[in-house]
Amino acid sequence: MARVELKMPELGNEITEAQIDALLKEVGDRVSEGEEIITITTPKVTMDLEAPASGTVVEVFVEEDEIVAVGAVLAVIEA
Amino acid sequence: MRGPGALIEALRQMTVIRAFENGIASLKSKGGYGDIAYAYRGPAHLSIGQEAAAVGAAMALTPEDHIFGSHRSHGEFLAKGLSAIQNLGDNALNTVMESHGGGVLLRAVETRLPAENARGLAENFLLMGLLSEIFMRETGFNGGMGGSMHAFFTPFGAYPNNAIVGASAGIATGAGLWMKSQGRDSIAVSMTGDGSTGCGPVWEALNFAGMAQFERLWESRGFLPVLFFFTNNFYAMGGQTGGETMAWDRLARIGAGLRDDACHAETVDGTNPLAVADAVQRKRRLLLDGRGPAILDVECYRFSGHSTTDVNAYRTKDEIAAWDAIDPIRSYRDSLVTEGILDGAAADAIQTEVDTRMKAVFAAAADPEAAPPVRLGDDGARVGGKMFADSETPPDGGPPEPLADPGKVARIRQNAKKSRGGRDADGEPLSPLRAITLRDGLFEAVLSALLSDPRIMIYGEECREWGGAFGVYRGLSELFPHDRVFNAPISEAAIVATAVGASMEGGRPVIELMYADFIGRAGDELFNQLAKWRAMSNGSLSVPVVVRCSVGSRYGAQHSQDWSGLAAHVPGLKVIYPATPYDAKGLMASALASDDPVIVFESQRLYDQVELFRDAVPNGDYRIPIGAPDIKRVGGDVTVLTVGPALYPALEAARSLETRGVSLEVIDARSLVPFDYGPVLDSVSKTGRLLLVSEACERGGFTMTLSSNITRFAFDALKVPPRTLGSPNWIVPGADLEYGYFPQSPDIEDVILTDLMGDTGHSRKGARRWDDLALARSGL
Ligand SMILES: Cc1ncc(C[n+]2csc(CCOP(=O)(O)OP(=O)(O)O)c2C)c(N)n1
Ligand SMILES: [Mg+2]
């Protein structure tokens, strides 16, 4: 079983952090690759982050409203 | 009107137009007409020979259809007016005449040009209103503020004629946009010449009117009801279009490049009023069915020169003679006689009646008693007082419900969680993710207007899902359908021109130009159209458009210029440049409510700015009056007046200089036009020293104007001459060099200590150690 990390993506032009708007999945949920699991927001956009692989969500490191740096690990999926 | 009467009326109308323009030609060439001596000094772009095109078009239109003409539109104007007079009842005509300009024109007509019935009086009213407008008299339709090339009268459906070739295409398209959005049963007609097919803005308008979204994405299916009526007289001034200056071989073929239905383009015999009427009637039906836009290529010929300075060097006598052989009026009259509809004597009687009427009209319009010349007055208010409405007109009713519950929209939910103030408990600035930003302030004002005022229509490039290039509108596409918020093509000229047209029809467009640097693409539309129609209409038209443009940073020479000074330079535009969330929301609310055009400059560097001056940005609606500068920091030694983002380095300099015992009073201009000098003069009378800071190039900049005026108004209070600090007269260099371009706080400190405080021992900390005089000499 491989552990696949979901990270806060690069958001372009000098954006260094973003806020967690909503957690769409919780630990134990099964997800398939491409399924939306976390909604994030920056001052300019709101976007859904997709599961990088199919499997089970085994860890979520962030909470709603938390501000997180670009590159930080947000969740782990066991694929 | 139908039947033989209508056919004869068409001849009569063409005869009226020809006589009217012959009269003007005579004034220009002979200094008089008949026994009336009058030296008319203005322009005369006559359409002698083109009468059939004008009358044919107007025959097929209703008073609710609106035409937008050109520099050569006396004929089109008269034809539209004469057609409206035939269509409107006596009561309507009397009301129209009575309510225009407080009855000044009507009184003159009743006294000098009485008639037996309302129609006759209305016709004299039309002729006198136009001719005295051409003479720029008080009795003119635009109170003398328009003149020959700009005369119009909206109650007859004759909207502004335009001296800028092709400008009417975009404005008519905007009128069509508003007609469509309101579900009106009418069309807008752009009446421009063949030469205008060489104008970029005309192509932008053609594309705009046929945008696929009108059919595919708007709830009310159907394209804009705009007829592009090209009066094709084969020439611009002296250049021939077909065969010389244009790539097309036949004007009508331009439609093929736009849409698969080729915009229903057709070439029409413009020497025959019935052929033109038939074509316009057919196109009108298509347009009302939502199948527009349509193009007509109406071939005709002007016998008169382009203007009275034309010596006809570009065309031969043979050519003119060949067209003269098919003179539209003579040909049409002959055909009526041949068909037994009119006999020769009746035709002559028409000519005699028209000539007599025209002599009387010219005599009245030339007479200063009947048609008083415009007097400036001691206060200049006769013209100056027409520049701005300085008013607000609330909407009649509310808009339809939004598509969703605003509280459920992610953006609005997120904003609800944010702090309304910009500082944490320790007084430190909050992250823009945690506090209301300038971007949010603009959003809240716009959202509130969209929810309460059905006239508000938002568009620009990438305004829907993208939320505008910088996310100001993020969330709006979830709440509003396309007729309230839509994506425009990359057509800055059409974006502004359509907003002008839509606003003339009662709309309140809020348009976004992604970067201020793109103003150049909409130069005419902003500076000649948006800025001027209020005054050129003598205050009868309002153009309440809000133009938002961002001022960039880090993107180099074509994406980082503060051009607020350009907008401020042109009379007729209100200009604001807010620098805080509180100011942005309150000023935007005032702009949205204003009956005047307002240009809003927004610094991209400040979109994430949180509120540092007020405890909180109010949740609800509030207003900041346009024109009121704001004291952001109180001090005693030097007044620093800033424009836009220059506020922040000025405050940084103030904090640094405080440690050296120099106290700055920092005033944020917030608005450029209008501008209340009061608070600045009060401050200068206290400090005696003034520095003006902005990010615009210094030369010809707005701070130079402020500086010069303040020197004049507060000369006695000044201890030293004021200083301005702007950007050097260079291109904006790349991101890494911006520190040496936009004024920074060390530069501000340097200028204050050296030039204003006279500290000769100060060693400069900023990047600007250059020799200002040497730079100025070499134009840098
Ligand atoms: C933008 C612009 N460029 C140039 C002119 C000067 N100008 C006035 S009329 C004209 C010719 C226009 O030709 P066309 O559109 O065919 O109209 P016509 O004069 O034949 O009625 C020109 C070049 C102008 N008024 N506006
Ligand atoms: Mg022409």
Keywords for this structure?
heterodimer; A: 79 residues; mainly beta; OB fold (Dihydrolipoamide Acetyltransferase, E2P); four-stranded antiparallel beta sheet; 8 strands; B: 780 residues; alpha/beta; Rossmann fold; seven-stranded mixed beta sheet; six-stranded parallel beta sheet; 28 helices; 20 strands; 39% helix; elongated; binds thiamine diphosphate; binds magnesium ion
What secondary-structure arrangement, pairings included, does this model have?
The complex is a heterodimer of chains A (79) and B (780).
Chain A: E1 3-7, E2 17-23, E3 30-31, E4 36-41, E5 46-50, E6 55-60, E7 67-69, E8 73-78
Antiparallel strand pairs in A: 1-8, 2-4, 2-7, 3-6, 4-5, 6-8
Chain B: H1 3-30, E1 32-33, E2 36-37, H2 51-59, E3 66-68, H3 74-87, H4 90-99, H5 104-112, H6 118-134, E4 158-159, H7 167-181, E5 188-193, H8 200-209, H9 213-216, E6 226-232, H10 241-245, E7 266-269, H11 273-288, E8 294-299, H12 317-324, H13 328-338, H14 344-366, H15 381-384, H16 410-417, H17 438-452, E9 456-460, H18 476-479, E10 485-487, H19 492-504, E11 508-515, H20 523-530, H21 533-536, E12 546-551, H22 564-569, E13 574-576, H23 581-593, E14 598-603, E15 630-633, E16 638-642, H24 647-658, E17 664-668, E18 671-673, H25 678-687, E19 690-697, H26 702-713, E20 723-727, H27 745-756, H28 772-777
Helix pairs in contact in B: 1-2, 1-3, 1-13, 1-14, 2-3, 2-11, 3-6, 4-6, 5-6, 6-14, 7-8, 7-19, 8-19, 17-23, 19-20, 24-27
Bound molecules: thiamine diphosphate and magnesium ion.
Magnesium ion (MG) is lined by residues 193-195, 233, 235-236 of chain B.
